[in-house]
Write a structure and sequence with these properties.
This protein is an alpha/beta fold. Helix content is 35%, strand content 21%. The chain has 15 helices and 18 strands. The strands form 3 sheets. Strands 1, 2, 3, 4, 5, 6, 15, 16, 17 and 18 form a 10-stranded mixed sheet that branches. It has a 4-stranded parallel sheet with strand order 7-8-9-10. A 4-stranded parallel sheet has the order 11-12-13-14. Strand 16 and strand 17 form a beta hairpin. The chain starts with 12 loop residues before the first strand and ends with a helix.
Length: 476
């Protein structure tokens, strides 16, 4: 994708250090990423939110070589004789949001499967994904990255059985982990499923970068056998890649694992696969199989009691909660405060756009503590930034604005001003004006580099084709 150069049009004021601010008139032109990372740049704004320290009114963040080299009051920066100064005006500069769970390749399915029970919804989504061509899947994933950048997201933790999301993250220069999904409820298929996974992972790892890594994701207890869970965990640890799995998401999943009942049990039984009870809870199942550990990200964890919380905490596994997606299915809410009180590293995710209205980590964080009167807005910001970074094991590099960390920043305009602490100046739903990933601007003036308009047009056409296909396939 294009990289934005140091000369802006009217969206921000740029000045060479020591000179008066002026509006650049040179047309927008791409430059190399190497050149972009070589610049020393001070981003000045009405507020800077380090997250690891109190908000700074009239603050600045100086980046160089893709890293943060200084954070403080604007005008107090160290020597900027060879730097550019970007005056962002009435804006908030914060760490880039972390979307700790999503399915970017399902972006074009938004609204297509609404109103279905969870089991039926899953089958409908799988059928829709199978109907999409490879090109349509890539455009769907690209559109997901674009929507994420517009929301101020710099890091995505994506799960998918194909490489479309991995390709899109590489293409748009964002940070992320592409967890390759693994399915196989029949123990007899364990070796073939693992062999196919190993082939996909090897091909993707050959193209991985310092920004985009590869992981593995045995999908869920209702779609993965005990044997495959054990084998997948052993494979991931042997290869040194992170893991993620959907767990304790619904009553239907718990009914399968604990009692061998419900719609998943009926489906497995119809295929000749045993649906016998497996454990006292989905969390207990993974503990018995040896799949829990610091390298495992647990997605959802709605159906968790205190015993499950304690088991997760002892294992060192991390959790991502997706409250608005859980609301979409009326699954309930994860015990977020119990996880935090137990020392579990917790982030938030949007899940796919097939079960959400928007990609907005701040909205997810706000929804996580909706019934918790003690939660403050600073907690929401923490969950959406460093919380997600911790859940993904990336907190040494991103999640806060601190010297030495990678320069992943998002900038949000403030309407009217007057905020007393910076945190309240940005509300859920606010679109970013600028997004910087590892020192490179990936969104400027609320526009993404590359052919974003073309991607949106093609994705819209794919969504329309799916609607027509579903209408034809629906029983009369």
């Amino acid at each position: 994708p294009r990289v934005f150069p140091p000369r802006y049009r009217a969206d921000a004021r740029v000045s060479p250090a020591g000179g008066g601010a002026r509006r650049a008139r040179r047309p927008h032109t791409p430059v190399s990423e190497r050149a972009a990372r070589a610049w020393t740049t001070s981003y000045r704004a009405g507020w800077v939110l380090p997250i690891s320290a109190p908000p700074i009114a009239g603050g600045a963040v100086v980046i160089e070589g893709g890293r943060i080299v200084w954070v403080g009051r604007a005008g107090d920066e160290p020597s900027l004789s060879r730097a550019r100064v970007v005056e962002l005006g009435n804006s908030v500069v914060a760490p880039g949001f972390v979307n700790a769970h999503t399915h970017l390749d399902l972006t074009v399915l938004q609204g297509l499967c609404d109103g279905l029970p969870f089991f039926d919804w899953i089958r409908a989504v799988v059928a829709c994904r199978d109907e999409l061509t490879d090109d349509e899947l890539r455009d769907s994933a690209r559109l997901g990255v674009i929507r994420g950048l517009e929301a101020g997201i710099t890091t995505f933790a994506d799960t998918a059985p194909v490489a479309a999301s991995f390709d899109a993250m590489l293409e748009f220069g964002v940070r992320g982990i592409a967890y390759q999904e693994l399915f196989g409820p029949d123990p007899a298929g364990t070796q073939s499923a693992l062999a196919a996974l190993a082939e996909r992972v090897a091909a993707m790892r050959a193209r991985a970068t310092p920004l985009v890594r590869v992981g593995v994701s045995p999908h869920a207890p209702y779609s993965v056998s005990d044997d495959l869970y054990t084998a997948a965990a052993a494979f991931a640890r042997r290869e040194g890649v992170p893991m993620a799995t959907h767990l304790a998401e619904s009553d239907a999943e718990t009914a399968l694992v604990v009692r061998g009942e419900g719609p998943f049990a009926g489906f497995l039984g119809s295929r000749g696969i045993s649906a016998a009870p497996r454990a006292v809870s989905p969390v207990a199942l993974l503990a018995r199989l040896g799949a829990l550990g610091p390298d495992m990200l647990l997605i959802h964890c709605v159906q968790c009691d205190q015993s499950d919380v304690d088991t997760i905490a002892r294992s060192g596994a991390t959790v991502v909660t997706c409250p608005r997606s859980n609301d979409y299915f009326a699954h309930g809410r994860a015990p977020a405060r119990a996880f935090l009180d137990a020392g579990v590293r917790l982030g938030v995710g949007s899940d796919s756009m097939a079960s959400n209205a928007s990609m907005d980590p701040l909205a997810e964080a706000s929804a996580t503590f909706v019934a918790d009167g003690a939660a403050q807005i600073a907690d929401h910001w923490r969950l959406a930034t460093i919380g997600g970074a911790e859940a993904l094991g990336l907190d040494s590099r991103i999640g806060t604005l601190e010297v030495g960390k990678d320069a992943d920043l998002s900038v949000f305009p403030i309407d009217g001003g007057g905020a007393s602490d910076g945190y309240s100046a940005v509300t859920a739903g606010t679109r970013a004006s600028h997004v910087i990933v590892a020192g490179v601007e990936r969104l400027r003036a609320a526009r993404v580099g590359g052919n974003a308009d073309g991607v949106a047009k093609r994705a819209k056409a794919a969504a329309q084709r799916l609607r027509e296909w579903r209408a034809r396939a629906a029983p009369s």
